[in-house]
C-alpha cells in the first residue's frame, strides 16, 4: 500500500499526496508534530469524509486560494482543513474536521511534497497501517456529515451525499447554507 | 481543455476533473462594456449561478454538481450531465418524427415535469432569469423526465410575483417561438406550476397576464 499522489487539475505544476492510516495508536503525537512544525500536513477526521473525492475538491480549492493569495488561514494545509468545512468559522471547522487525539484512523493530505520527504516523515512517525484511501468510506459517519453540511432528504432525492457535500465545499465563499 | 460550445456570454469546455467528466463554463469579458463594470457584472453572474444551482438542488431540483469555482478567471467547473439532451433538441426531434397530435401527447408528461419543477423553484423565491428550452436538460431516457435546470447566470432571489410572472413569460415566448404549436404544452406547464407553487401561483398568473398584455401593446405600437 502506498500514498496516492494526484496532480492538481487547474494547476498541473502542483500536486496533493493523500494517505489513509488505520489502527493508529499515536494520533496525539502526530498532531503535535504538525503543530510543532516538524512537518506540514493536513490531518483529517476520517468520520467526516465520505470519499477521497471530497478531500480532493477541498484540497483543490485550497491550492487555488494559495496560488491567488486569498487564503483565510495561515498555510495551504490548514486551508485544506478549512475548505472541507461548510462553516466560515475557522476554529469550529478545525474542531469538526481535524484529527482528534483519541482517534484510531486518520486521513492525511500533503500539498506539493515534491521530493516525497514529508510523506516519508509522516509514514515514519505514524504508528498505524497505511491503507487504501478508498477505504475511508468505512469510517464515515453519515448522520453527522448530513447534519454538519445541512443535507436534507429532499436534496438526496436528486443527488448523492458526496455530490451534496462537494457542492457546498466548492460554493463555500459564495453561498452560506 | 476542449472548447465544446460558444454562447453569447460564455465558452463551454469539456474536461476531466480528477476523473469526473466536467464542463467548464467560462464567462468572457465584453469589449463594449466598461472594464470595471464588466468585471463586476461577470462576477455577479458567476455568483448568481452558483447560488441558484445550490439552492435549487437543496429544494430537490436536479442541477449539475459544482466542483470548483475560479472567480479570477470567471470559470465554473461542474458535473457534465452525461447522456443528456437539451429539452430544445428533444422537442424538435419529437415534433419532426411524429404528427402534431402525437407530438403533443408525447410531450405532455415533460410539460408537466417542467411546470412542477418551476413551481418548486418559484416557491423557494428563485427566479431563473433565462428560461428557455436550451437551459433545460433531460438526462437518460427522455421519457423518464429527469429534468436538470442549467444556466442560472441571470437568476436572482426575490419574492415578487411580477418577477416570477416575467420568468414564465420569457419561457412562453421562448417555447412558442422555438417550437411551433406548443401553446397547449405551455398550458400544461402552467397547470402543473399552479399545483406545486400552491400558495403563490394565483398572483404570478395574474402578473403573467399583465405582462402578456404589455407585450402585445408594445408589438401593436411598434
Ligand atoms: N453541466 C452540463 N452538462 C451537459 N451539458 C451542458 C452543461 N452545461 C451546459 N451544457 C450545454 O451547453 C449549453 C450552453 O450552456 P449554458 O446555457 O450554461 O451557457 P450559455 O452561455 O448561456 O449558452 P447560451 O448562450 O447558448 O444559452 C447548454 O445548452 C447545454 O447544451
Ligand atoms: Mg444557455
From TrEMBL, chain A:
Protein's name according to its UniProt entry: TP53RK-binding protein
Q: Does the keyword Nucleotide-binding apply?
A: no
Q: Which subcellular locations apply to this protein? A: Nucleus
Q: Which family does it belong to?
A: Belongs to the CGI121/TPRKB family.
Q: Does the keyword tRNA processing apply?
A: yes
Entry keyword set: Nucleus, tRNA processing
Q: Which InterPro entries match?
A: CGI121/TPRKB (IPR013926), CGI121/TPRKB_sf (IPR036504)
Where are its TM segments located?
none
Q: Name one GO cellular component term.
A: cytosol
Family matches, as PANTHER family = CGI-121 FAMILY MEMBER (PTHR15840), EKC_KEOPS COMPLEX SUBUNIT TPRKB (PTHR15840:SF10)
From TrEMBL, chain B:
| Record keyword Transport present | no
Subcellular localization is given as:
Nucleus
GO BP field: tRNA processing; tRNA threonylcarbamoyladenosine metabolic process
Which GO MF terms does the UniProt record name? ATP binding; hydrolase activity; protein serine/threonine kinase activity
Query: Which reaction is the catalytic activity of this chain?
Result: L-threonyl-[protein] + ATP = O-phospho-L-threonyl-[protein] + ADP + H(+); L-seryl-[protein] + ATP = O-phospho-L-seryl-[protein] + ADP + H(+)
Would you indicate the residue range of the signal peptide? Answer: none
Q: Principal localization?
A: nucleus
* EC number(s) per entry: 2.7.11.1
Pfam families to which the protein is assigned, alphabetical: Pkinase
Q: Which UniProt keywords apply?
A: ATP-binding, Hydrolase, Kinase, Nucleotide-binding, Nucleus, Phosphoprotein, Serine/threonine-protein kinase, Transferase, tRNA processing
The EC class name is: transferase
What range(s) does the Protein kinase domain occupy? 1-222
Gene3D superfamilies hit by this protein: Phosphorylase Kinase, domain 1 (3.30.200.20), Transferase(Phosphotransferase) domain 1 (1.10.510.10)
Its GO CC terms? cytosol; EKC/KEOPS complex; nucleus
Q: Which NCBIfam families match?
A: arch_bud32 (TIGR03724)
Q: How does it associate, per the subunit comment?
A: Component of the EKC/KEOPS complex composed of at least GON7, TP53RK, TPRKB, OSGEP and LAGE3; the whole complex dimerizes.
Q: What is its biological role?
A: Component of the EKC/KEOPS complex that is required for the formation of a threonylcarbamoyl group on adenosine at position 37 (t(6)A37) in tRNAs that read codons beginning with adenine. The complex is probably involved in the transfer of the threonylcarbamoyl moiety of threonylcarbamoyl-AMP (TC-AMP) to the N6 group of A37. TP53RK has ATPase activity in the context of the EKC/KEOPS complex and likely plays a supporting role to the catalytic subunit OSGEP. Atypical protein kinase that phosphorylates 'Ser-15' of p53/TP53 protein and may therefore participate in its activation.
Q: Which family does it belong to?
A: Belongs to the protein kinase superfamily. BUD32 family.
Under what name is this protein listed?
non-specific serine/threonine protein kinase
Source organism of the structure: Magallana gigas
